[in-house]
Amino acid sequence: MATKEIEIKFRIEDLAALTRALKQAGFERITRSTHEMNLLYDLPGQKLLKRGEMLRLRKYGEAWVLTHKAKSEDRRHKVRVEVETRVEDGQEMDAILRALGFEPTFRYEKYRAEWSDGKATSCWMRLQLEISARSKDRRAGSTAPRGP
Question: How many independent structural domains does the chain possess?
Answer without folding.
Answer: 1
